[in-house]
């Protein structure tokens, strides 16, 4: 059994998501953006954020697989489910749970840019900035967090804990005991979205 340490309580998440919603609403005045939620991790964030944004907008979903050991260094990400919407000439706001190394966001960004959006930005609930390995622009950030493996509010550890109403950190010994490598040990990463 893993031990989970409370990092961000639900009340703080709720307040911050409302602030992000206000900021995004003011930046997108007079526009009709499309919010692209990256599955699965951002489903709860999207659900709360869409209700905190008061400009007309659409939502769509994109599902990608995170890197494994062989692709980690190259940033190759597999597209599992594509958008249902043509985003050409649209204002696109990607909704992510977390930007960690930045490889996933770089892949998604380059992929979406080929489709000719008018604008393309990202809002991420969490930013694990100190782990970044690629320089990629991040527009809206809920919380900058330390280099810990986190779960809850959509984020999982081996598909568990997505339903926690707060963000918690798994303790490092839990991760090591279960054979999951983290913090640059060079072994296989298998973090699901
Ligand atoms: P990247 O390293 O920025 O490419 O992040 C890849 C993906 O790994 C994210 O979209 C998350 O799905 C997942 N991930 C990264 N860090 C964590 C974490 O601390 N908890 C759960 N998932 C994570
Ligand atoms: Mg994700």
Structure write-up:
This protein starts with a strand and ends in a 16-residue tail after the last helix. Helices cover 23% and strands 27% of the residues. The protein has a 6-stranded mixed beta sheet with strand order 4-3-2-5-6-7, sandwiched between helices. Strands 1-9-8 form a 3-stranded antiparallel beta sheet. The protein has one domain: Rossmann fold, CATH 3.40.50.2020. The longest helix has 18 residues, at 10-27. α1 packs across α2 (43-52). The protein has 193 residues and is α/β, with parallel strands linked by helices. It has helices spanning 10-27, 43-52, 103-113, 172-177; strands at residues 4-8, 34-39, 58-65, 78-81, 91-99, 119-127, 140-144, 150-151, 167-170. 31% of the residues are buried. It is globular. It contains 4 helices and 9 strands, in the order βαβαβββαββββα. α2 (43-52) links the parallel β2 (34-39) and β3 (58-65). Residues 183-193 have low confidence and may be disordered. The site of inosinic acid has 17 residues, from β5, α3 and β8.
- Helical stretch count? 4
What are the segments in which pLDDT stays under 50 over at least 5 consecutive residues?
A: 183-193
List the domain count as a whole number.
1
Q: If strands are numbered along the chain, what order do they take across the biggest sheet?
A: 4-3-2-5-6-7
Ends: how far apart? 21 Å
In short:
The protein is α/β, with parallel strands linked by helices. 23% of the residues lie in helices and 27% in strands.
Question: Key terms for this structure?
Answer:
single chain; 193 residues; alpha/beta; three-stranded antiparallel beta sheet; 27% strand; globular; disordered C terminus; binds inosinic acid; binds magnesium ion
């Amino acid at each position: 059994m893993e031990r989970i340490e409370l990092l961000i309580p639900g009340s703080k998440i709720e307040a911050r998501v409302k602030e992000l919603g206000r900021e995004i609403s003011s930046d997108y005045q007079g526009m009709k953006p499309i919010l692209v939620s990256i599955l699965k991790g951002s489903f709860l964030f999207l659900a709360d954020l869409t209700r905190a944004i008061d400009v007309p907008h659409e939502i769509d979903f994109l599902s990608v697989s995170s890197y494994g050991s062989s692709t980690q260094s190259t940033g190759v990400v597999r597209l599992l489910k594509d958008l249902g919407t043509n985003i050409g000439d649209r204002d696109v706001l990607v909704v992510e749970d977390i930007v960690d190394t930045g490889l996933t966001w770089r892949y998604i960004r380059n992929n979406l840019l080929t489709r000719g959006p008018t604008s393309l930005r990202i809002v991420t609930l969490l930013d694990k900035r100190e782990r970044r390995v690629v320089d990629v622009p991040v527009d809206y950030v809920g919380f900058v967090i330390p280099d810990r493996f986190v779960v809850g509010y959509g984020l999982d550890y081996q598909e568990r804990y997505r339903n926690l109403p707060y963000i918690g950190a798994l303790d490092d010994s839990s991760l090591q005991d279960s054979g999951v490598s983290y913090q640059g040990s060079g072994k296989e990463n298998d973090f699901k979205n």
